[in-house]
Amino acid sequence: MENFSKTRFIQFIRDEEGASAIEYALIAAMVAIALVTFVDPINAAVKVIFTSIQTALT
User: How many domains in the chain?
Assistant: First the structure.
């Protein structure tokens, strides 16, 4: 039984499938942080541009 547990532990340590899932989760988290950080300033800048265009047309 002890040899089986040791073999399973070594297989678990060598398994790399979980590593790629963690990498994808980190990438998704970084994208979410970037969106939260930059969406409001970009939104405000676009509103200013369209407001100035609207003012120039009237």
Answer: 1
